Amino acid sequence: MQSRQTLIALPVLLLAGAMLTGCNSDAPSASEAQQVAEGIFASCDNLKVKDFERVNGIPQNDGSYLVQVKYTVRLTPPDSIASYMRDTYPKTLAELQAKDSLFKELRTQYYDRLHALEATESMATENDLLAKYPDLSQLSAKVTEANSGPQLNSFVNDTMSMIERNMMAACPKVNPSTTIRMVDVPKPLEKFAGDVDIPFNDTYAMIKTDNGWMARQ
Fold this sequence. Notes:
alpha+beta; 58% helix; 8 helices
């Protein structure tokens, strides 16, 4: 009796599964969603979609779908970026990092000495102490010198801006906000000496057309 019930139940389950599949068949496929992703970057040879995955599809009351996807964009920097990041950036970065470390060390020495003097001469101002103690004045001059010229943070920020400008020039038809979004992700910036894989998680609004599912404009 148990085996007969099982045999009867099996076709019912198969039918129910087929009905569910039929309900979900009229929805954007992974390949259709991938075409949307590829269309975003199609105008730029420096950007390629890879490892695409359709995560979920959510039907909307108007017949459209919200399709959740994740993928990777491989960014191949133009030579204007790659050569600079390979040949110039690492050397300048190392020099400015050493300069920044020296500045912080000298600043610590200066304030340690200043506070020690203030503890013994509480009525004296900082300028009074600088005039009275040559070693403090020398430390102050060294701090000023170490803090002059190009600065580490400004250099890194300027380099990021350079990468953004050059990528927007190489990919003028890609939405600038998308380009900036990609440049902001990879750290450290030295990665831009070669190919960079950038993860994306997006949601596309898609509608059914005579040519299949497409992104809603």
